[in-house]
Amino acid sequence: MKITVIGAGYVGLVTAVCLAEVGHEVLCAKKTTRNLDKLRNGISPIYELGLTEMLQSNLKRGRIEFTTDMEKAVEFSDVIFICVGTPSNQKGEADLDQVFEVSRSVAEHMDRYKLLIEKSTVPVNTHQKIEKIMSSITDIEFEVASNPEFLSEGNSVHNFMHPHRIVVGVASERARKIFQEIYEPFTSEGYPLLFSDVASAEIIKYASNAFLAIKISYINMIADLCEKTGANIDYVSRGVGLDHRIGDKFLDAGLGYGGSCLPKDVNALIETYQEYQLDNGLLVETRKINQQRREKFYEDIMEALEKVDGKTITIWGLAFKPNTDDIRAAPAVDIVQKLKESGAKLKLYDPQAKENFSRKIPEEGNITYYQDKYEALEDSDALVIITDWKEFEEPDMDKIKELMNSPNIFDGRNILDKELMAQKEFNYYSMGR
Ligand code: UDX
Q1: Which of 98, 145, 333, 406 is within CB 3.0–4.6 Å of 84 for a Cys-Cys bond?
Q2: How far is the CA of 65 from the centre of ligand 1 (A)?
Q3: Ligand 1 pocket: which of 206, 212, 387 to mutate (most atoms <8 Å of CB)?
Q4: Is 167 in the same domain as 217?
Q5: Is residue 302, in this structure, part of any structural domain at all?
Q6: Residues 216, 322: one domain?
Q7: String of b and e for 367-406 (b: at least 16 CB within 10 Å)?
Q8: How confident is the model at residue 307, as a pLDDT?
Q9: Is 209 near ligand 1, meaning CB less than 6 Å away?
Q10: Which of 196, 223, 251 is the last residue of a domain?
Q11: pTM score, two decimals?
């Protein structure tokens, strides 16, 4: 099937490449020429496991192309995925400008029926707004459907190819049939395709992400109780998570959630509840607990080190989570900023996110970036772990002790073995243990 994908960011590129991988003929349109040559030459501008290989093999097969020509993109197919950004605006609502711009552009260029698919996360009933915009421009028949993405960064390609479920909100039999064809390579493998009305599909995305955020804030709230009472959140999480009704995922206590989705979607849902005059207390509390994790961690470091000014602190982990170079809403941004302001000398290391992070907090004065995690530890007064990269799980503790000035470790993700830290005589601080 011929498919147009508009947007070549995390969501757009993964969607386009994976749809090509299962046999569709895909044209991926982007607004500017930035990275266009790279994409055409098989170089993915984002770091995502397996994406480059899949992009290259589908370029070779001639199943994917890139363009900045909207007219060509609209002409190419009757099925158009909207995968542009919906960032938070100042109020916390989803900013839909790019979605509306694409809708207008499709309406202006279309000469026959089109099915527009909201893949980007948009608040409930956005489809009605799109319909209104398009109807004011064209008389040609079109439909708007919702097919939210559930891609988790770092695993996006795997998530797309092996979905827990594919959610589709449609308003007609015609649209339903189109989706059955698009996702036939998945349903034939047994992956569930759930149809609903469009508004429900729009809500499913927010309800899922907000639930994950609530789960994380909930376990972090319990971690505080563990810390005060001498209990250990590791045991508590495990004991709670073994109940199949609860499940063991998203029960890792620590510095809380960051990234481009959970914070933004919780914010947007808070605003939606406000708009419909519904009580948003649970969501507001979830957000508050999450923000407090970063503040508490920073204060714990300050308290333990007594005077931070003039001390050298090594940071391991800048990305908002492992296996990505994304630093959006990352706990590291707030924590590093605060430590910088307090006068500490900071040595930063992350396997993937150094470049993105240095754009936000450049290498100057007291800030230095390192290519090697051990090198970053030389003469350091404290090691602060912010992201749970696999390579931080079992480091050479003897080497670390030798390199550091003082053996202080602040583990914001509870990835080191508490008993081992005591055995090796580190001053070890973790969260809720
Ligand atoms: C999320 C959703 O998982 C995905 O389905 C949706 O499409 C987009 O948003 P993503 O933002 O890529 O994906 O990351 P995710 O793996 O969900 O992690 C989000 C944040 O929560 C990270 O900062 C992570 O460190 C944190 N987290 C996760 C915890 O603090 N504890 C946990 O137990 C799990």
Answers
A1: 98
A2: 30
A3: 212
A4: no
A5: yes
A6: no
A7: bebbeebeebbeebbbbbbbbbbeebeebebeebeebbee
A8: 82
A9: yes
A10: 196
A11: 0.95
CA 264 to CA 121: how far, in whole Å?
Answer: 10
For residue 135, how many C-alpha atoms fall within 13 Å in the half-sphere facing its CB? 8
**How confident is the model at residue 263, as a pLDDT?**
96
Q: Determine the distance separating the centroid of ligand 1 and the alpha carbon of 210, expressed in angstroms.
A: 11
Ligand 1 mutation target, pool 257, 266, 335, 386, most atoms within 8 A of CB:
257
Could you count the other beta carbons within 10 Å of the beta carbon of residue 97?
13
pLDDT at site 208: 98
Which residues of the chain, if any, have pLDDT below 70? Answer: none
| CATH number (domain holding residue 346) | 3.40.50.720
281 and 365 both lie in a single domain: no
- Give yes or no for residue 259 CB within 6 A of ligand 1: yes
185-231 residue pLDDT tens: 999 999 999 999 999 999 999 999 999 999 999 999 999 999 999 99
Do 21 and 163 reside in the same domain of the chain? Answer: yes
Whether 410 and 346 map to the same domain: the answer is yes
d(Cα 405, Cα 379) in Å, to the nearest integer? 5
18 tagged catalytic: no
Domain range for 162: 2-196
pLDDT at 48: 86
